[in-house]
Amino acid sequence: MRRSRFFTAAAVVVVALSAGLAVASRSDRAEAAVVWNEDFNGAAGAGVDTSKWSFDVGGGGWGNQELEYYTSGTSNVAMDGQGHLVITARKGSGGHNDCWNGTCQFTSGRIQTAGKFTQQYGHIEARIQVPNGSGLWPAFWMLGGGNWPTDGEIDIMEVVGRDPNRLYGTLHGPGYSGGNGYGANIVAGSPWYAAFHNYAVDWSQNQIVWTVDGQEYFRATPASLQAAKGNVTWVYNHPFFIILNLAVGGNFGQGNPAGLPAESKMLIDYVHVSTSNSTPPPTGNALKSNLSGRCIDIPGANPVDGARLQTYDCNGTAAQQWTANSDGTMRAMGKCMDPAGGALTNGTPIQLVTCNGNPVQRFTLSAAGDLVNVSANRCVDVKDRNTANGAQLQLWDCTGGSNQKWTRA
């Protein structure tokens, strides 16, 4: 959100939204884990709690040649009395003639928690209904400080009105900012403005996972970032503050702002920040399937190139001892886990091959138990949910199923 860009995604995920993304009213994490929350339960017309939020004010384009003037007070940011904060973008200058392009064309709102609340790691979630309209650009995001992009930016939710079925999640940092940001987008079967949705990230020291309504659509690690962007720096190990805003136009928003109605409204039900409730993963070199309790195995303990990996009774032999190497590879018996033929599509078999430095050989095991191929952003999957010895492994879209969950043992 911070600077001008035409977005380059690392991945595109397509979902049938109308076919069943569950819409929850809040995170299912225990309330005891919540470290900061804002539920916007004020009276209609009331302003935000200024002990938690500050206003960004002005019409300088905000690095993106945006068309709005951000105001303070309740003229563009106020409660609706029904448990929502409403950020309203209005046509007209609002009396402001000092925008970057002359007389301002719109007023809107942008609030943030800098100097009042920051967080390092955890679950950061907001329940939001974005507005409908080509030219609108609502966002829920975080900044690591005032030195952009060195301090980092985590875009949790961006939807541009000209493409209302597409949701973006992105990182910006030194060497991968603006149009070169690192992220993904998810395409739904119906527009995001049609309902409230829960937009969130789960952020830990070496991983950020983006979800919408509890469904993961992208994850980033230092290894996956460098695989995509080269020798760049992971800058997400310090506190960040939260931002909510509704921009109009701009180099990314684009669209047809002239065709917008007199008022466009972004509704925020809540913003919650909680610490992680997850426990550290067990240690060990075997990778045990949550589906069958069997381990990833090199057949016959024969490390020949092209050996198709399988699950087999855990036995502690070298054929089942997988170490995560500093280059991002997963190794056993001196060779690397590898997608056959370097393919990254669903159904690609997982094999053993001589380590060759190809980025497609990079795998990461998340705290949630997903063994993810970094280049494909797909999970190692037990084919056909086979629980028998000799079950084959493949790449597949990460679903959260037990046939894709692995535990160190």
UniProtKB/TrEMBL annotation:
Keywords, ordered alphabetically: Signal
Pfam families, per the entry: Glyco_hydro_16, Ricin_B_lectin
InterPro entries: Beta-glucanase-like, ConA-like_dom_sf, Glycosyl_Hydrlase_16, Ricin_B-like_lectins, Ricin_B_lectin
SUPFAM superfamilies found in the cross-reference section: Concanavalin A-like lectins/glucanases, Ricin B-like lectins
Stretches assigned to the GH16 domain: 34-279
Signal peptide, first to last residue: 1-24
Family: Belongs to the glycosyl hydrolase 16 family.
PANTHER family, sorted: GLYCOSIDE HYDROLASE FAMILY 16 PROTEIN, GLYCOSYL HYDROLASE-RELATED
Protein name: Family 16 glycosylhydrolase
Naturally occurring in which organism (per UniProt): Paractinoplanes globisporus
